[in-house]
Amino acid sequence: MVTLEPCRHTGRTGPCTTALIDAGVARVVYGQSDPTAEAGGGADVLRAAGVDVIGGVEVAAASAVNEAWTFAQLHGRPMVTWKAAVSLDGRVADAGGGPTAITGPEAGAHVHELRARVGAIIVGTGTVLVDDPALTVRRADGPPSPPPLRVVVGSRPIPAGFRVHDEAAATLFLDERDPRVVLSLLFDRGVRHALLEGGPTLAAAFLAAGVVDVVEWYVAPILLGAGPVALPAVDGRGLLGVDVLEVGVVGEDVRIVGRVNVESAET
User: Fold this and answer.
1) H or E stretch including 197?
2) Which of 43, 45, 84, 152 has the most CB atoms in a 10 Å sphere around its CB?
């Protein structure tokens, strides 16, 4: 059994349907139908060649495996997960506005696992200039994974010596204010899941554009009392609901994962 209907198109490799027919496979069982126009319809090709085909088996489970890819194919842009670490009073830094340790090492390990599952990490120039982040995947164990593309959005130049200029991963600098254009460019590069790790300004822009799909928040048991909040006012958007998928304790922090409910927006 395979999760996705065998494709019938030629991409980097030949059609899966041709390979199965040539191999003499008698039966194919798959979960999710291929949603794309160029590759979908492989089941019919196999049936026409005399292969016994059974589709629609465990569709929900199969679709969950292919969630980001399926979303990208249906929407023409990568799925976007917004990750943030905040204090109990909703702040992402202290009154000085500089790099502030919010969450503990266990939450940090979770974030690196999340980074390992995406094709790009998006930040703004402000985050880079303040934090000088590496934006790489660093795990204590587990198989190595290709580093995500580092995407720096904004017009301010990043001086030489900042880590986004190193060779640990490729970096794309985009002097672009429209999040939809950013995501379109990433889609064309083959990115199907992007992690938004930028600061409040960039997060507000993506939310205003309606292109945040999943939130992954880490709430630390500290009160900063002053400093920038996680999210300023979002232009053109009212109350926006989040359908909670997971809530758990990671070290001393609380991790909340939810899907943005675009139908809940109130203006």
Assistant:
1) none
2) 152
Element (H, E) at 110: helix 105-115
264 C-beta neighbours (distance < 10 Å), count? 12
Length of the chain equals: 267
CATH top-level class of 75-264: alpha beta
Contacts of residue 75, defined as CB under 8 A and 6 or more positions apart, other chains included, come to none
Q: In terms of C-beta density within 10 A (0-12 exposed, 13-18 middle, 19 or more buried), how is residue 135 classed?
A: buried
pLDDT score of 265 more than 60: no
Residue identified by tokens 């909040």 is 229
Asked, colleague to colleague, whether 2-65 and 75-264 share their fold, the answer is no
Structural fold of domain 2-65: Cytidine Deaminase; domain 2 (3.40.140)
Domain range annotation of the chain: 2-65, 75-264
Q: What digits encode the pLDDT tens for the residues 53-81?
A: 998 888 888 878 888 888 998 899 999 99
Query: What pLDDT does 12 receive?
Result: 76
Helix or strand holding residue 205 (H, E): helix 200-208
Listing from the earlier edge strand, what are the strands of the sheet with 2-4?
Answer: 2-4, 27-32, 52-54
